[in-house]
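Worked Example 4.2. Consider the chain below.
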Amino acid sequence: MMHISQPSVSRLIADLERSAGFPLFARVGRGLTPTVEGQQFYKGVEGMFVGIDRLQELAKSIRTSQGGTISISTIQSIALIELPAAVGRVYRENPEIRFTINSRNTPAILDAVQMRQVDLGIVGREANHEGVETMFQTSAPYVCLLPEDHPLAQEGGTIDLEEVALTETFVTFGGTYPDTMMSMDPGLSQQLQSRSRLSAANMPLAGALVRETGALAVADPFSAEQAVRMGGVVFRPVVQNLTYFVSIIAAGPEQLSRQALSFVDLFASQLTARVEFVNALRMRG
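Applying the procedure from the previous section yields the following structure tokens:
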């Protein structure tokens, strides 16, 4: 049955007996009978093999499992369109996966990932926290958000913010622009602030104010898409090179399940496609 010769079996038994320090078999006539010690030893070996079988079953269960929970904390600009679209794909294809999702600001998300309160964080800038690793990062150009009935909305091409700031009013954020995030020239930032009568706490609110007041806003393309889908506004690329970053972060790939790692790959591809679309609009301008 084992496809080895009898002398080889005899040699293996002798080696095992020398290692164990006691005889395993007693010769009875022309055959072998296990000794009492041999029977005890066999029970121990048999139990070990049962344990191995259980480990194999566990490994198979883990290997074939499609379940588990993925917890995600995201910034607002990604929360309403991009993230739900990616979650929806996984949700439909893998009925055993659960998601827990919340929306916070970038500092709170960095802390949550660092303390391992969530598996994945989606933030608006590069993560430099200790214990936080960037799994994916991309950048996209900011756009100009304007009412759909605005004269500039009917034109093609890019918008020069320095030109329109001479005649238009703008929505700013907390009375300022996030200069470091946008890489905006300080002079342009001050010019836009001087033309502002509206200050919003976040981009989605800014989009609503653009729709209702007729003012313009400089928005990241993800928030701009949210505003467009709510109706009443459109966006156009801008001449200025203003950059918005999006990063997917985690405590480290070793802390993520296979399902979470697959989700990172899927979401990264989706964000990349969106960025390529916005860049193409700017190039056409």
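Residues 207 and 227 are 5 Å apart (CA to CA). The chain has three domains: 6-64, 68-140+244-284, 143-241. Compare this with Example 4.1 before moving on.
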